[in-house]
């Protein structure tokens, strides 16, 4: 006996062939915008879908709910799960099927690999979106925008690469910055900082000794210390402001699969860089225009060309 569908989307998929024309329209409206149903009262949904309130209640009952109230409670719960980075049941089932298939057959096809990578990337972005504290991100952006100098520190795999990407994002805004991934250089760079400077740390674990030492040095000399790293880690505990992104962004992955953690880190970094540019508006406009002109001199103007990407 097969298990009963657990999510609203699953119930709709099972029930769709037997739905009336009006119920099918309501189902399609939910699939297109679940947040509207999660956030809307019965009257709101009636007005938005041009369906009577009794018809909407019958639709909910048809899917196995006691009425619109229970349907909406499930919609809210599922929306919160998505926003908090908790993978949907459908995604988890596909992921486990792929991983179990790999264990049985000893390999994954390119189609399966692409689907597994897509699911992992989406989950990592959901974790980043749900886990990003807007107030902390704003504080970091403000500190960078006002800084005399920014030193970006990351070590290891994706963290070192994301640190370099942070430099790539910020220097074009005419921000004095450098990125370091060598432990000796990190300590020396931190020791040259002072008041008005920012040390920006990227770490997936928050445990590397060189980063912790560099943070303590930077704080000792009066610099602000901010970063993207787990809050409950040695590094996270000494930073003035941090956005907590860590191993939770890389759950249930195949042993040969590249970690999707970098997608989460990059999402947070892009949000911060975007906000910094907005804060610097005129300075950023002028600097980006110069950067675009310098690149255009190499091969002419290319429509919609990213600036140095």
TrEMBL record:
Q: Keyword annotations for this protein?
A: DNA-binding, Transcription, Transcription regulation
Q: Name one GO molecular function term.
A: carbohydrate derivative binding
Question: Superkingdom of the source?
Answer: Bacteria
Q: Which residues form a coiled coil?
A: none
- A single GO BP annotation from the record? carbohydrate derivative metabolic process
Q: Which Gene3D superfamilies match?
A: Glucose-6-phosphate isomerase like protein, domain 1, Winged helix-like DNA-binding domain superfamily/Winged helix DNA-binding domain
Q: Is Transcription set as a keyword in this record?
A: yes
User: Do you know which PANTHER family this protein is assigned to?
Assistant: GLUCOKINASE (PTHR30514), HTH-TYPE TRANSCRIPTIONAL REGULATOR HEXR-RELATED (PTHR30514:SF1)
The name on file for this protein is MurR/RpiR family transcriptional regulator
């Amino acid at each position: 006996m097969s298990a009963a569908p657990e999510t609203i989307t699953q119930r709709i998929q099972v029930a769709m062939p037997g739905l009336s024309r009006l119920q099918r329209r309501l189902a399609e409206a939910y699939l297109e915008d679940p947040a509207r149903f999660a956030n809307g009262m019965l009257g709101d949904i009636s007005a938005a879908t041009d369906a009577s309130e009794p018809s909407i209640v019958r639709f909910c009952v048809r899917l196995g709910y006691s009425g619109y109230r229970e349907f909406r409670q499930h919609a809210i719960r599922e929306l919160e799960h998505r926003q908090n980075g908790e993978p949907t049941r459908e995604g988890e089932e596909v992921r486990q099927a792929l991983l179990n298939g790999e264990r049985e057959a000893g390999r994954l096809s390119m189609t399966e690999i692409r689907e597994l990578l897509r699911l992992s990337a989406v989950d990592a972005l959901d974790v980043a979106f749900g886990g990003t504290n807007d107030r902390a991100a704003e504080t970091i952006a403000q500190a960078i925008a006002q800084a005399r100098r920014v030193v970006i520190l990351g070590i290891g795999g994706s963290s070192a690469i994301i640190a370099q990407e942070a430099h790539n994002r910020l220097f074009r805004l005419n921000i004095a910055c450098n990125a370091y991934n060598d432990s000796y250089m990190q300590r020396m760079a931190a020791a040259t900082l002072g008041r008005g400077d920012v040390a920006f740390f990227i770490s997936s674990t928050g445990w590397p000794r060189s980063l912790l030492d560099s943070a303590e040095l930077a704080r000792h000399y009066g610099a602000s210390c901010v970063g993207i790293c787990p809050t409950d880690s040695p590094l996270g505990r000494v930073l003035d402001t941090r956005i907590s992104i860590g191993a939770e962004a890389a759950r249930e992955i195949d042993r040969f699969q590249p970690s999707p953690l970098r997608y989460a880190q990059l999402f947070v970094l892009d949000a911060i860089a975007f906000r910094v540019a907005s804060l610097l508006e005129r300075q950023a406009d002028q600097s980006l225009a110069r950067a675009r002109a310098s690149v255009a001199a190499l091969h002419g103007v290319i429509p919609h060309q990213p600036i140095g990407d």
